[in-house]
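User: Could you write out the 3D structure of this protein bound to 1-O-phosphono-beta-D-fructopyranose? I've included everything you need below.
Assistant: Certainly. Input first, then the structure.
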Amino acid sequence: MSEPSLTSLEITSQPACWRRAAEAAASAPGLPGPGERVAVTGCGTSWFMAQAYAALREASGQGETDAFPASEFPVSRTYDRLVVITRSGTTTEVLDLIEEVRERWEVLALTADAASPVVRAADETAVLAWADEESVVQTRFATTALAFLRAGLEAAGGLPEGVKRLAEAASDAETALIEPLPRAVLSAEQWTFLGGGWAYGLAQEAALKMREAAGAWTESYPAMEYRHGPVSITGPGRVAWILGAAPAGLEADVSRTGGALVADGRRLDPMADLIRAQRLAVAVAESRGLNPDTPRGLTRSVILKG
Ligand code: F1P
């Protein structure tokens, strides 16, 4: 048997990384306080984590929270605080954005690298070095950054009704790491990931993982938007996968198409369910003879030449 990929090893370490994030968040400076008007940003995977956190914070009643990709940030707006997520700390669009707004807003940066430029650019930094990765494809850094922010919400005023505490999510993650993936999901030719509220950002990330690691055809939509057109993609040999709670009628919609439905949101926290999608990405990559550690056309961070 060949050695497991770096991506697989990093996926496996997520429950421990999340628990450490919860400890770190308890005494971290720079986290948004209740009532602050906050924007969250990043690129690629980091933007999807920003989306998930923004929806979770707003639903928890702790304040208006927007998420934008760093390259499309509406800088004329007014915020109290900008939260940036960047594993490398070197992504050009993120650094340019901080430069533009740092005089006006407090900036908290979450990064894996204490020596990176973002640490000098931001007012406060949370260095989640234990979650850094060797793989280009992000898995544990991204979810650990979200775990850190989620723990911050838990400490500041609580999570929305129906959202599990991070400690429970970490237990679900352990389940998600060992459960066999359904055969129909492993052998499918197309996957559409869905999620409502904060799970939408996670659905976006699940779809991106499949594209990056496996070059797979995936789509992602807010759960209720799926029936307004995208359902036409689903059919025999294809999968619709809902992270978090499934809206009424989804099962019947998917069943009519002849596609397979994955809907374990009652049982698994959406962050834990994302781990199953990460595992699927590795499995599909390997079944196609691809190395998930070396995604096509992608580097650890994108640094644009000026
Ligand atoms: C983000 C990024 C992602 C990409 C890939 C590599 O970098 O470039 O856009 O999807 O995962 O990382 P970072 O700003 O988080 O370092």
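The CA atoms of residues 123 and 298 lie 30 Å apart.
User: Perfect, thank you.
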